[in-house]
Amino acid sequence: MSVEPLSQKEIEDRLAELPGWTLDGDRLTRSYRLDSHFAAAAMVVHIARTQEELDHHSDLTLGYHTVSLAVHTHSAGGAVTEKDFELARKVEALAPAHGAH
After folding, report:
1. CA atoms of 45 and 48, how far apart (whole Å)
2. pTM above 0.85, yes or no
């Protein structure tokens, strides 16, 4: 997986395929609202497992009924790379199973 920084156009094109994800400064971000705190906590565990599998980790925040992520690639100088989008796509695939909206 490339750790080259993506251009602004590449980032915008990839974000168009991931509704709910945005670029906030130098990080991809997304928040999910779930039906309960337990569902949010379960989603965090599944995201953590996915991050371990990818060896790529976000700032992951558990709220009362929410889960928030912010990610960029440290090894690319804190830029957004394809690794960040790979993680975002995998998290999106997990979200429906946890009732996230």
Report:
1. 5
2. yes
